[in-house]
Amino acid sequence: MNAPHSTPGVLAATDATFNNHLNPSFLQACLRQATDHTPMWLMRQAGRYLPEYCATRAKAGSFMGLATNRDFATEVTLQPLDRYPLDAAILFSDILTVPDAMGLGLSFAQGEGPRFASAVRDEAAVAKLAVPDMAKLQYVFDAVSSIRKALTQTDGRSRVPLIGFSGSPWTLACYMVEGAGSDDYRLVKTMLYSRPDLMHRILAINADSVAAYLNAQIDAGAQAVMIFDSWGGVLADGAFQQFSLAYTARVLAQLKKTHTDAAGNSIRIPRIVFTKGGGLWLQEMAALDCEVLGLDWTVNLGKARALVGGSEYASGVSGPGKALQGNIDPNVLFAPPAQIATEVARVLDSFGKPYQGAGTGPTHIFNLGHGISQYTPPEHVAALVEAVHQHSRALRA
Question: Which candidate in 32, 44, 268, 305 is catalytic?
Fold first, then answer.
């Protein structure tokens, strides 16, 4: 098993958020505090590119059998951490658990994406929607608690922090109305333009559901939470602000910012928002009440840092800047290791030298610009992680 990297002890001593962490670098970077390397994790890091994941999924019998079983979900969450010195774990689950709990009937056919038995396409279907009883999602919260326990060392410290997550209200609505994935979003956009009242009703219920769901994950042990606005970028300018951004803000307004640990300490819970294709609206997203903005590969990190990552926003929004997360193209991982290292350096150099010192300043969490492909060679991920840690340390030298 690879040992986690160390981080500056001076910061760990100043905030109870970091007290019980062997490697708090991810949390420190989320809170815009200095680290000795750029922390990293991967979207969809527990997935089909790993042979051990495929073996566990075969034992589970199906994706839902895997996701709804506490022990299997714990096992696959830990698998990438046992292979690579990653700086955070992310709960193994699916973004569509919330509408499934609403009674829409989620399923995954072999080789296909998610599908709902009951799509939400008319007034009667919308009228039936309600924030689900969180007891229906207890399997998720049990998995969070189980993973936290598995990450805890004999000395009581956690190997790495655990990230919980949900789909954004808009992204959930896309699947709920389409009934499955879509190439053109024709059905959901038809409702958006022809019956915006129905769309707003769906989104309001989704936002309140996502907030309750993420708060329950925090109560179960999640140490950071992330909102995946996977399809926000398919919206037109104007529609994005009204139907995606506003409801992401509604979720954030309800999320817990701290959690009290067993010793009575107030622990900060960073919140991450990732909108694929959202670079156009980065300055408007600066106003979101979150600590971290995730970026896809179309955004230049240096320009994003100048807009929203500094001590003062170029956009004129008041308050501290955002930590940035991202954003290498996942398809870089199909290149030879030497080229992967070159592209890693390009991404890290584009952000520039991260903040070094007391207090807070511009920080970066390395990630992909979207989820890792199932066809990615596992050894190429090893090359990626090594390159990130090596080059990011060199940047700080």
Answer: 44
Instruction: Of 241, 307, 243, 245, give the one whose Cα is nearest residue 274.
Output: 245
- Whether this prediction's pTM lies above 0.90 is answered by yes
First to last CA, the chain: 27
Domain residue ranges in the chain: 1-42+258-397, 46-85+88-228+237-256
Active site residue 48: yes
The CA distance from 163 to 88, in Å, is: 7
- 180 or 257: which leads in pLDDT: 257
Catalytic site residue from 32, 49, 53, 57: 57
State the helix-helix crossing angle for 196-220 and 169-178, rounded to 10 degrees: 120
**Active site residue: 15, 36, 48, 219, which one?**
48
Nearest to 63 by CA among 82, 78, 76: 76
Contact 91, 140 (CB under 8 A): yes
- Active site residue: 49, 84, 87, 94, which one? 94
Q: Give the model confidence (pLDDT) of 269-309 as tens digits.
A: 999 999 999 999 999 999 999 999 999 999 999 999 999 98
Distance from C-alpha of 322 to C-alpha of 331, rounded to nearest angstrom: 26
Catalytic-residue membership of 121: no
Residue 229 pLDDT level (bands cut at 50, 70, 90): very high
Task: Specify whether the CB–CB gap between 295 and 368 falls below 8 A.
Answer: no
CATH topology of domain 1-42+258-397: TIM Barrel (3.20.20)
Output the CA torsion sign for 123, 128, 134, 136: negative
Quote the distance between the C-alpha of residue 159 and its chain's center: 19
Amino acid present at 310: G
CATH-assigned architecture of domain 46-85+88-228+237-256: Alpha-Beta Barrel (3.20)
What is the C-alpha to C-alpha distance for residues 119 and 107, in angstroms, rounded to an integer? 13
Same fold, 1-42+258-397 and 46-85+88-228+237-256: yes
Which residue among the candidates 49, 53, 84, 175 is catalytic per the annotation? 175
Strand 323-328 and strand 114-116: pairing?
unpaired
